[in-house]
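To fix ideas, we close by showing one paired sequence and structure record:
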Amino acid sequence: MSFMYALRSGFGLCLIGVGLMSCSTVEEGPPTRPAAEQTCAPGAHEALLGASVAAAADIADPKRIVRPGSALTMDYRPDRTNIEADESGRITRIWCG
């Protein structure tokens, strides 16, 4: 009888330990980059305004091409270059975010 009691007690303690571990949380924020690694510089690409979207291939990643009617996520990424194009595929706007 003492063996069964010990077995049940040990199992119960394990369940309590697992339950407590599952209740703990770790708060993590979004990954951050040092300022030196932020690659978005829309002013450096002003010469591409009016050019074909294909010219945006030389812009460093991360980048996003935005065409008319495109759905955009609302996340703000200071390192991402957004390239907006019109219906004819010409670049009309370049911004960070």
In short: The longest helix spans residues 2-23.
